[in-house]
Amino acid sequence: MGRLVPTTRLLRDSIVELGLSQGSLLDIGGGVGALTFELLDRGIRSALVLDASSAYVAATREEVGRTGRTKSETIVEGDLLELAGKLPLADLVTLDRAACCYPAYEPMFHESVRRHAKRAVALSYPRDVWFVRSGMWIDNARRARKSGFRAFVHPPAEMQQVIERAGFKLARRRTTLVGDGRIRTLPRRGAVR
Which of 24, 54, 64, 160 has the fewest C-beta atoms lying within 10 Å of its C-beta? Predict the structure, then answer.
């Protein structure tokens, strides 16, 4: 695998530093599996990578076969909202730059956070600042002609409220120039969600 983008590196480091790199992982919008591979190397026992892109899924499967991780990793192609009922609970759910792929983040957070995360959620998303919005607007204009895919910047305060209503508390926040990464955990006493 190549170098990690800054938000992915920050999520990985925060997950490890907080002692969350153990148990099971559900990596939603996992792309080529970069964060998953990093966490498997640092203690995650089993991982399921979900991505809607067939090209990303093929690349992840190739890397799994090349590295011999077939017993610890499962790769699923599809959309979270369509497959949610078939996905397992996981100790840790990661959404590294996945929120920007959905026009409405609420249903995605409901499924991933409320229904699938047992202990912690780690997510990153584009910062809601003018230069990120401008860059995304230009990228969306370029992509619209080729694939029709669009990326979105959602209001961080509203996304946080959805996650907090599920019982998760902020454990760590780190920011890059264009991205915001947050780790949220359930309170130690095990809040009812």
Answer: 54
